[in-house]
Specification:
The complex is a heterodimer of chains A (about 210) and B (about 325).
Chain A lengths: L3 H4 L3 H25 L6 H4 L8 E8 L2 E8 L4 H8 L18 E4 L2 E4 L12 E3 L12 H8 L9 H14 L5 H7 L10 H13 L8
Parallel strand pairs in A: 1-5
Antiparallel strand pairs in A: 1-2, 3-4, 3-5
Chain B lengths: L4 E3 L4 H6 L11 E4 L3 H8 L7 E4 L8 E4 L2 E5 L4 H6 L1 H6 L1 H8 L4 H6 L2 H5 L51 H8 L3 E5 L4 E5 H4 L18 E8 L2 H4 L1 E6 L10 E10 L2 E10 L6 E2 L1 H7 L6 H8 L14 H18 L3
Parallel strand pairs in B: 1-3, 2-3
Antiparallel strand pairs in B: 4-5, 5-8, 6-7, 6-8, 9-10, 10-11, 11-12
The chains are: A alpha+beta (about 210), B alpha+beta (about 325).
Chain lengths: ~210, ~325
């Protein structure tokens, strides 16, 4: 079990979080509506009262169990970033399109923005923070640095998590295969050539599949 | 996201007793399994159920070959089915359709049952900024007719909806005469997959025959010699991680140089996964030569109606059929 500080969210804190979460959702929707002619403000469209529910959720992340009280809407990505403060997983689009939030679930890569946190209890989640062993970087992390496989770095954690899985699956045999099996991880800097070369290099090195 | 209560039932019976409704925007309670499509639509406020009932961990995920054929539990992931040796060897069109769908990450999460119930990629359905969408808000109109409709259907459309069905998997399964096993609290039934889906007609918001409290529990595919010589061709705007502009699933039984039996279905062009029986009839007994294939494929255009930007699909789908038949036929 993890430290007491995160093991149970205090009720006053929870109320504040809830209020913030509801305000954020409503505000976001109204802003969206303003931009789009003909849109109805989604939060009010059906006239239903907010029925936000808080659930006890046990998440197993990087080998540690965390007991959290989460709004039903909380995605795995938001639970990792906002509740466990594991900010290695990035929030790019939040809609499953960019891959910046890629984590491993039971050893398989998934998009953490597309899972509700309350529905992945019992699954073993591995994030970017769980790849290194102490001060020793995972071989693919080291390879990304050696091969300069990023510019701004925002997509990098997702690329590395997907790359670790791609290698472990045996889908890193050629540049063409890597491009196909890494599709779904976008890089707006356009560092794709270096990313592909790095994964191909790492796939040939020893120990590269650790964590996958 | 709109607020919702999230139910995590202990077993399938408890989930069925909660009587959620799959795939209808006007339902107060909906089921969620892999969640890859549902969570996107929740995030975008396209779906706003008051209650979500989780099927995670409650459904069979086995992939088995028995005397009747292939049986796939509804909770099997797209990735597991795509890589299963029975599927790759005996039903390659299913594996190919899956591997051409989404991305490896999504295929690890998404379930087979959920894939069949994914909602259309019509941008007007998926963007609440547009007020007119009969699928999202019954009676509100259709923004795609007269709008940007390059991605839309040319077969099975109505004056109320021209949204294309998005599943590649469903196209492959319909070509192979697959069925789905459905279960609710009081009833179990098996429905041919093609009959799971409604045409839009006057009620585009009702997409399937699933009743309240009814879920897909398994997919079954009969053993068929044609399934071994099968192929999925997907034509799209980029090489990967994109939905079909036009796709076709082909399965052939050959008696060289003649085609004994052909199964043909189309994707990206129909409001549901589209079987092409007239093309199949023309191919049966035909010689395996370009002119004969081209003549048979022309039957796919019967009843097709373009809406401007998608007119090109009517020609493209015929060419796709010819190419896919040539590829499948060349397989040994």
């Amino acid at each position: 079990m993890e430290s007491a500080g995160r093991s149970k969210v205090a009720s006053s804190d929870l109320t504040r979080r809830e209020l913030l979460a509801v305000a954020a959702v409503t505000g976001g929707a109204l802003v969206g509506g303003d931009f789009m002619p003909g849109a109805t403000p989604p939060a009010n469209a059906q006239g239903t009262a907010a029925v936000s529910t808080v659930l006890d959720v046990i998440l197993r992340v990087n080998g540690t169990e965390h007991r959290l009280a989460l709004d039903s809407r909380t995605t795995l990505l938001d639970a990792l970033r906002e509740h466990l403060h594991l900010t290695g997983s990035k929030k790019g689009c939040g809609l499953g399109q960019c891959g910046a939030c890629t984590v491993l679930m039971d050893g398989k890569r998934v998009k953490s923005c597309l899972s509700l946190a309350a529905l992945v209890e019992g699954r073993e989640i591995t994030t970017m923070e769980g790849l290194a062993q102490g001060d020793e970087l995972h071989p693919l992390q080291a390879a990304f640095i050696d091969r300069d496989a990023f510019q701004c770095g925002y997509c990098t954690p997702g690329q590395i998590m997907a790359g670790v899985a791609c290698i472990a699956e045996g889908h890193a045999g050629s540049p063409e295969q890597i491009r196909e099996w890494m599709s779904g991880n976008l890089c707006r800097c356009g560092a794709y050539d270096h990313i592909v070369a790095t994964i191909q290099d790492a796939a040939q090195g020893a120990g590269s599949v650790r964590g996958g | 996201m709109h607020s919702f209560a999230l139910e995590r039932p202990r077993d399938l019976n408890a989930a069925l007793a909660l009587r959620a409704q799959a795939g209808r925007n006007d339902a107060p309670a909906e089921y969620i399994a892999g969640g890859t499509d549902m969570v996107q639509l929740l995030q975008e406020h396209v779906r706003r159920p008051e209650r979500l009932v989780s099927l995670a961990g409650l459904l069979d995920n086995r992939i088995e070959l028995g005397p009747q054929g292939l049986r796939i539990g509804a909770a099997a992931t797209m990735a597991d089915v795509a890589a299963h040796p029975v599927v790759t060897e005996r039903f390659p069109v299913i594996s190919e359709a899956l591997l051409n769908s989404a991305s490896p990450r999504v295929r690890n999460q998404a379930t087979m049952g959920g894939n069949l119930l994914q909602r259309t990629r019509c941008p007007y359905f998926r963007d609440v900024g547009y007020s007119a969408c009969n699928k999202r808000v019954p009676g509100s109109g259709c923004s795609a007719i007269g709008g940007e409709n390059r991605w839309h259907a040319v077969l099975g459309t109505s004056e109320n909806c021209i949204a294309a069905h998005a599943s590649d998997l469903a196209v492959a399964l319909v070509a192979l005469d697959a069925a789905v096993e459905l279960r609710s609290e009081n009833r179990q039934r098996t429905v041919p997959l093609t009959n799971l889906y409604h045409l839009p007609d006057a009620t585009p918001h009702i997409e399937t025959v699933l009743e309240q409290g009814e879920v897909i529990t398994a997919i079954t595919v009969s053993s068929n010699p044609a399934a071994r010589r099968s192929h999925y061709l997907k034509v799209r705007d980029r090489a990967s991680f994109e939905f079909a502009v036009v796709s076709t699933a082909v399965a052939l039984e050959m008696d060289w140089p003649r085609i004994r039996q052909a199964h043909i279905a189309l994707g990206g062009v129909g409001t549901k996964p589209w079987r092409a029986p007239r093309v199949e009839a023309a191919l049966a007994g035909a010689n395996f030569e370009p002119a004969a294939l081209r003549a048979a494929a022309a039957f796919a255009a019967e009843g097709a109606q373009g809406r401007g930007s998608n007119d090109f699909k009517i020609e493209l789908m015929q060419r796709a059929i010819v190419r896919a038949v040539e590829t499948a036929g060349a397989r040994t």
